[in-house]
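As a warm-up, study this chain.
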Amino acid sequence: MTLSEKYDAVIIGAGAAGLAAGSVCAQAGVSTLIIDRESRTGGILNQCIHNGFGLRYFKEELTGPEFAFRMSEKARNAGVSFALDSAVTKVKKLADGTFDLRVTSKKFGVKHINAKALLLAAGCRERTRGAIATPGGRPAGIFTAGAAQKLLNCSGKLPGKSAVIVGSGDIGLIMARRLRWSGIEVKAVVEIMPYSAGLTRNVVQCLHDFNIPLYLSTSVVQINGKDRVESVVAAPLDANKVPDMSKAFTIPCDTVLFSVGLIPEMELARQLDVKENPATGGAEINSMYNTSVPGFFSAGNVLHVHDLVDFVAEEAEFAGKCMVDYLASATPGREFSAGAGKNLKYVIPNRFSPSSATRFLFRPTTVADRAELKAIVNGETVWQKKLLFVRPAEMIIAEVPADLLKNDVCFILEEM
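Now compare it with the structure written out below.
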């Protein structure tokens, strides 16, 4: 006999986003369940043993596990229920507007859970070497940065003796420092873009402080080795972003780590035909963090990749409040669209209500020491904000007054 349960709010993912949203829902008196396939809450935070977390959210510097513990305790104290070691394999929306989730677990087998509101907070998975088609054989010693981080921090095993890191995402930068602390020589970080993909503070603290070379506008074009990695071949990119093989050079190493981006875990959302945002790989949402499917919400890195876990928690708290409002039968009013124009990769949310101020998040595509963010409505600039030190790795956050946006808006970023 298949078990069945009912909850007002169900959250998929017990990382920072799921825990933050769940706390808000439970504190409001909403019956709340968080489901996660891992045996413990906290998600990726549990393997991030470095500090730098919580400065904004908790006003205190914490390690990843410390941040995860505090978030978990907050959710449990609020009255959140958990289904750990459990995987949602299927989700569908029923005729009455609720959601049916098929959940599997070693503990109870198969269970059906009914939810009045559903939040996807499943995070991301790493892009692999195969995703960027790096040539070469398949020797031992090739990892994603996150896999190497888990191997070292959770299992206490060294991935190798000398390493090259492909891509300068934050996990890769942090792992460069972690490898050096563990006695592993980091030969180089190789990045195809003309700027680092990670936060400036991580470039300084993880590379500059350890004299680790960062090769910008450079591509790894070959991985050499039969049984174990022996070296990589790198080449600078020309004006057409094609490797200039006449300037190629070889870097001896026995380990290669890939830090080349993240892919949102959107498989469950696709079962509901949720409209996706091609710029982020996540869902399109309105200013209440509701997707194109009423009652199905999204927040955290599965929606768009954040710079800091503090931003993830703040965003998910707001999404939790929106779920509570939805369960109280709050109906959305008129909505307008928000688009990203010049020098912006995306804007979140994609739709907004003109009845209240909206907190927009932007991902720039340019590097500038001074810039101006503008909101364009019907060809006219209705709002603008001056910015300093703009970098693609760092989100721009801005709240725009409600009385200024009375129609569809396009945001642009102009260098000054």
